[in-house]
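TICKET #2291
ISSUE: user wants both folds in one file
ATTACHMENT 1:
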Amino acid sequence: MEIASEPTSAEAPIRSFLFEGSPGEVARIVEDFCRRLFPSLPESYVQDRIGFVVKPELFVSEAKGRLVAFKVGYQNSATTFFSWLGGVDEDFRRLGLASRLAALQHARCRALGISAIETRTRADNPLMLIVNLRSGFQVVGVEADPYGRFVVLQRRSLD
């Protein structure tokens, strides 16, 4: 699944697509992104979580053979998909890649017959909250994570 009209950076066109690989390959890519984009996350964060995921769905954006953005999630019930984690390399921000990957993810979910997407975003990440709100998510709750940080729960119907 690929979007035809792609943004470009100053250097190259950017291609966004569903990564076709094993759960182990997905984990390795997500871990690499987390090391680069979220250095404060514990090293075990991805492995601790992905072990419970049957079939992770990973969407990526690529420029000049390098992965520059990602969005990963998984189906957590017959009708609901959990959009877990995503990010964009600093040099490729403000090009709409987060929105583009979300659109691909949502189109894939519709094709699979999923009717809703859920996500959690740390309250101190206003850019992601805005991307989600612009994508049709609604705030359905707020809770504290295990570290005492506030997390905003969001849900979007795909109907």
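ATTACHMENT 2:
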Amino acid sequence: MGRKERRQMERVQKAESKYYTEKVYTRAEANMAVKQIVAKQAYEMEKSARKHAVRDLSAVLIETLRDEFGFGLSRVIKFMKRANKKLSCVSSGHVTIDDIIKQWEIELQIDQDEFYRLTEVD
């Protein structure tokens, strides 16, 4: 390699070093980094979807409580606080949705099939 080619290569390497100052990863490290990024993004998307689902369901429930049962602001706030407490219990694993449904079956004397039929959305 002649002097001209060496200098040209040095200029290219110097220019690249300005843009590529981060560590060079092995294939395994790169795969691990990508998996971590994808897992984090999936978690954030799931969290966002849950948040929007709860918000949408809450809006429909509050609208129903106001329209059908005349709930005012204080009763709506009490309802939402209590519902959020129950959701926290479910998300922390203290109780499951199946446990809640089983309790309804006992208290309301309704079997699970009938409950699902009543709660189906058109």
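RESOLUTION: both attachments delivered.
EXTRA DETAIL ON ATTACHMENT 2: The chain has a mean pLDDT of 86.
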